[in-house]
Amino acid sequence: MTDHFYLFYEEYQRNTDTIHMGTYFHVRLEKFLFINGSNKNQIEFVESEDHNISRGFGDKDTVVLRNKIEQIRANVPYYSY
After folding, report:
1. Which whole number is the average pLDDT over 33-57?
2. Which end of the chain offers a freer environment for a tag, N or C, measured as fewer CB atoms within 10 Å?
3. How far apart are alpha carbons 68 and 73 in whole angstroms?
4. Using one digit for the tens of pLDDT, what is the confidence trace for 59-71?
């Protein structure tokens, strides 16, 4: 997995003036942004047709997820109340 990050970062450094190389979700801004080359380091929002993008666990089975969390809390000492 680290190889993928290395290759992406190498691509970012090599293509210094390239724009719109990819997109990523900025958690703090809660928006999708473009990834530009290292010389084009600016915040540039991606306009999306799909405004119903799921974030976090909202579209998952909450009962199964809650049961898994309770199982972890019951079996790991530092999660106990």
Report:
1. 72
2. C
3. 9
4. 566 788 788 888 8
Q: What is the pLDDT of residue 56?
A: 58
Among the listed ranges 4-8, 31-35, 70-74, which one has the minimum average pLDDT value? Answer: 4-8
Quick one: tokens of 75?
């079996």
Phi/psi at 5 (nearest 5 deg)?
A: -65, -40
46 and 34 Cβ atoms separated by less than 8 Å: yes
Q: Which two tokens stand for residue 69?
A: 């969390």
User: Would you call 73 helix, strand, or coil by DSSP?
Assistant: helix
φ/ψ of residue 40, rounded to 5: -115, 40
- Whether 74 has a pLDDT exceeding 80, the answer reads yes
State the Cα–Cα distance between residues 48 and 25, nearest whole angstrom: 12
Residue among 32, 5, 38 at smallest CA distance from 19: 38
